[in-house]
Amino acid sequence: MPLVHVNASGQKIALHGSATEQLSDTIAQACATRGPTIIMVHGFKYAPYNPAHCPHRHLFHAKGWPADLGMAQHDTLGIAFGWEARGKLATVYTTALEQAQNLARLVKSLRPRGPVHLIGHSLGATLCLAALPYLNKGDIGRIVLLSGAAHLGLARHALDTPAGRSSEVIHVTSRENKLFDLGFEHLIPCTGSIARGIARPQAVQLHIDCAKTLDGLADLGYPIAAPRRRICHWSSYTRPGVMALNAALLTGRLPVSVLKCALPAPAAPRNIKLPYFLGGKTRSNKQTNLNIGPIHDPAY
Questions:
Q1: In this structure, are residues 145 and 128 in contact, taking their beta carbons and an 8 Å threshold?
Q2: Which of 39, 44, 106, 283 is most buried, most CB within 10 Å of its CB?
Q3: Where in the numbering of this chain does the AB hydrolase-1 domain appear (predicted)?
Q4: Could you tell me if residue 114 is left (phi over 0), alpha (psi between -120 and 50 degrees) or otherwise beta?
């Protein structure tokens, strides 16, 4: 399994940790063989040039996402896409939109090799979706968004482009992420979060907190542990069993058409108002300020 680590900054993409090796040479070597490519995009709080917050060290190392996605078991090229995601949320959001062009440029450089798939967590979802308008029909196969921090308007516009219409999008989400969805909508107000449902025929909203959904996934051979916490921004890749599912979706071993048949009928868009146990209104219309304990941090 080739694994390439790159960083995007400004208008450039460079290999991570190498001052001499050219990215173009590495890509050319990778494209000498045929096979799928999976590009992994991190979210908020990571910074590739800061050792304490480097995604390549904490998330994209060989035993991290690449191992969890089973890349070693397939003829897959893995690319870890690093970008500057530390700072004020609004600033990082703008950076995600800007770096979408670099992601699109990287995808285009991989055309001779074969299908390209994307997986992005948190604001990485914004970056993945924002890249679609810069691409052509068929450039992207599948996109798996994990607890995505992205606006509905952006998602629907992206999926109405030629590259978007020819791709399949799965948003893995949960009520565990509700606080983060609310915070995203409040701090960067626009057209609402994709947690409300993208509502496009090529998009699937996968609620891994739904008991019927978990039963359906188990019947397909992808058992996922039940939620253990009220609040967790990382359960879409740390919950036991979920990365095996994400891998199957990325590689196509689990076709989206089969997934849809196993899921319960789509419900009305989810209400992501502040829940009562976090200070929202209870049925008696009173406020409560319960201490819910520390927020769970990712395993790596």
A1: yes
A2: 39
A3: 80-201
A4: left
